[in-house]
Design a protein that fits this description.
By secondary structure, the protein is α/β, with parallel strands linked by helices. Helices cover 31% and strands 11% of the residues. The protein has a 3-stranded parallel β-sheet with strand order 1-2-3, covered by helices on one side. It is elongated, with a radius of gyration of 16 Å. One of its GO terms (molecular function) is beta-glucuronidase activity.
Length: 102
Amino acid sequence: MAAAFHEDTSRLVTWASNRKTSDLALQHADVVSFNSYPGWYGGGPESVVASWQSDGAWVAAHYPTKPFIISETGAGGISGNHSANRSRWSEEYQALIDTLDA
């Protein structure tokens, strides 16, 4: 990370952390970036908004001067797999999670 700062001080330094709140290097980032898949890996659609709110609150409390971005999120879906009750792997479930992530 020091090399990145040294090479070009005009660019922000970040990475897509999948360790989230346990990432010990976040103090060195200019921007806190999380990869997470609430509603897909653990929990259902009802967990998505609360998960991102919790992560955002944690970042605000621990790194109040740093921006927070969601660097990767979503759910899997099989093209052409449809389900009236939005079951996992259906395009409808994927769309629901993607909408909640937005």
